Every structure is written in C-alpha cells, then in structure tokens.
Amino acid sequence: MDAQEAFRQEVREWLQANCPESMRKPPVREEQVWAGRNQSFPSEDAKIWFERMRDKGWTVPEWPREYGGGGLDESQCKILKEEMKALGCRAPLLDLGIWMLGPALLEYGSEEQKKEHLPNITAGKIRWCQGYSEPGAGSDLASLQCKAEDKGDHFLVNGTKIWTTNADKSDWIFCLVRTDPNVKKQEGISFLLIDMASEGVSVSPIELISGESEFCQTFFDNVKVPKKNLVAELNKGWSVAKALLKHERKLMSETQDNAGPNISPVMAAEHYVGKDANGKIVDHALRDQLTQHEMKFRALGLTHFRSFEERVAGVGEGTIPMIMKYVGTESSKSKEELLLALMGTQALGWEGEAFTSDELLVTRGWLFSKALSIAGGSSEVQLNIIAKRVLGLPD
Asked: What domains sit in the chain, N to C, each tagged with a CATH number?
C-alpha cells in the first residue's frame, strides 16, 4: 500500500469513528454551523462533529498547523474531501474567513496578522463578511468611494458597502477602501480589517426576491481602524482584492447548495414526470434536458479534477480556474430551471401544506440562483476575462 492509499485508509477509519450518524446527511439551512463570537449549534452532534474536526485541524485542513490548520498537502486534502463526500459528512464549519480571507492573509498578511486572525478562523471564533461592492461600484469595483483617511495612529473610515452577505451576523469585515483619490483608481485602494463592533458601524438587511435577507448594506461613519489592520502595503489593496476574488470564484464554481432540497433532477424526473414501460422518462423533451444537464454536470466535475491534476503536476497554463466560475454558476442556474420544469406547479409554491419542504426550497433556490451570476463578478465580466486572458482576444 502506497502512502496515499495508507492516508486514505486512515482518513476513512477516522471519519467512520468520529462523524456522528446525524452529521452524515445534507443539512437544511438552519442546521448549518457558522463561526462567530456567539457561535451556536443546532444539536449536540453538530457540536461534537465541529470540535473533533477543529481539534484534528480539519476545519481548514490545507492551512499550516501553526495557524490551527491540518497541514495537509493538496493531494491529501482531495482525499479527505472525497472520503467525506463518500460518507456524506457535512462541513463542520462555514465562514468567509475559511474560503476567502484566510487564503489572502496567508499570501499577503503580516505574521502578526496571521497569528491573530487565522487560529480564530479555524476555531470558529470569529465570523467574517466581505466589504467590496458599493451602490456605485459593483462590476466596476475599482470605482469604489468608501474612504479611509490617515489620522496618524489609525484610519478614519467613511462610506458604505452593499451586498455584504450576513453582515448583520458577522463579527469582522474585510474591506476595500480608497486611501488615495489622486492616482489611477486601482492604485489608490487599500485592504483593511474592521471589527464590526467598532463605534460608527451599522448594518441594514436587504430583503431578496427569495424572501430572505442574507444580504445587507453596511455603513461606516467616522470608524476608527488601527493601522495594524492594514493588509499588505498602503494603496496596494487591489492586488490583495484580486487574489481573494480568485478564491471566491473558485468557491462559487464548486458550490453545491448543501442547504438546498434533498432532491436531484433525476429524482425529480422519476417522481414528478414518471417512467414508461421501458424505464425511460415519459416526456421526451424533459428527458433530453435532463440528459444534457447530467452530461454537463459530469463534464464540470471532470474539469475540476483535471485542473487539480495539472496543479499537482505543475503543468498546464492555469486558465481553467478562470472559466470555472462562469461555467459553475451558469450550471447552477440551469439546474434550478430544470427542477422547475420537471416539478411543474409543485415547484411554484411559496408556503402552505400543499407543498413539501423540498418543493418550497426549490422555489427559493431558483430565485436565489439569479444572484450567483452576479456575486463574485458578473457573468458578463467573467466572459470579458475569459475573452482577454484565456482566448487572447482584443479588448
């Protein structure tokens, strides 16, 4: 048995012994475990699973051990992910600090910042949100106007951020601010870490068409931020921002809504459309749409695997990740559209006993999917990036 197979066996045995049975199925939204100063758990099993994974360093297995991670290499992380998926293990902890800020700090943060923030992320002690977009700076993010003035021992921040996911539940925000208005717009931006408990920070939830208020608008009114919370150099925040967006887009390209309905398009077709005597979906047009979806879904998974193999082997041009955010989010949207087509009027419910909980989640999932092609860079912006950087087309 080679080293990788030995590691796989070790992981499989550890998960079997340590993942509670109730943590081996997809969670509904209210059962997800998020980080936070006032962290709560939906059940004792959820708490046990989180604590065991935290103590193992596997809430963020790829991070160095000195910051609370597992110290695993890329191949080992892939094995862990595969074995967790095979057993049906839930993610023990959710947080933007894990997916976005942490990788950026590992690349750009000072040692002091890494020691202060990364262990708190892996231990689930702090919940982070993202302060990028503004009412007048969305796809054209570099036009942001939220400013931070140098006041000697601190910055004074004034302005607003919008679409700050779960800002009303978060403890800290990583934020892009303008620190020099007299240079090219990308060159006058800095990257700050701001405690949401600071005086002058306020949050207003934004109701979505899905009936939820996951997004917020965040306001900064003469907020004092210590100089030590500046990541990288002054006016060099655009480089940090771009690096972080790569992680966000990678996350979105891989996202499968674990809080969504426990129903796949195939299951929906069998239950709501039905089969003929030969075991085929009776509606030819829907059968074709389902086949196309399954082929694309399989191709997407294989492309992710190819990208991983290229990174490990140190070959390839590194262009695959640039296309995956667009492809992944568009695939998610088409999946939701297909579920609606397969389920018919049962996918159009908003409330009431005539609909199951999964059917109501499909309705909301379809509405929320519209945001996926905007968040992390709109599909139109992504296509421009692909055209220029991947295909080499002129501006």
From this structure: 3-94 (1.10.540), 111-236 (2.40.110.10), 260-390 (1.20.140.10)
Residue indicated by tokens 């080499």? 392
What is the spatial distance between Cα 132 and Cα 165, in angstroms, rounded to a whole number? 11
Chain mean pLDDT for the chain = 89
Split at pLDDT 50, 70, 90, the class of 89 is very high
- Strands, E, within the chain: which ranges? 128-131, 147-150, 154-162, 172-178, 189-195, 201-206, 215-226, 230-231
Concatenate the DSSP letters of all residues of 277-327 into one string: TTS-BS-HHHHHHHHHHHHHHHHHHHHHHHHHHHHHHT-S-S-HHHHHHHH
CA angle 377, 382, 385 (to 5 degrees): 125
The Cα–Cα gap between 118 and 130 comes to 16
> Going by C-beta distance under 8 Å and a sequence separation of 6 or more, which residues neighbour residue 167?
129, 161, 173, 196, 203, 216, 218
- Half-sphere exposure in the Cβ direction for 29 (13 Å, CA): 12
122, 169, 230, 259 from 36: Cα distances, Å: 11, 8, 22, 19
Q: What pLDDT was estimated at residue 141? A: 86
Q: What is the pTM of this model?
A: 0.78
Q: What is the pLDDT of residue 256?
A: 45
Angle (CA) 341 343 349, round 5°: 105
Q: Give the distance, in angstroms, between the CA of residue 143 and the centroid of all CA atoms in the same chain.
A: 24
Rounded to an integer, what distance in angstroms lies between the CA atom of residue 23 and that of residue 41?
12
Query: Which pair of structure tokens corresponds to residue 308?
Result: 């991983």
User: Which of 20, 10, 74 lies closest to 314, judged by CA?
Assistant: 74
**Which residue in 260, 250, 248, 258 sits closest to 128, CA to CA?**
248
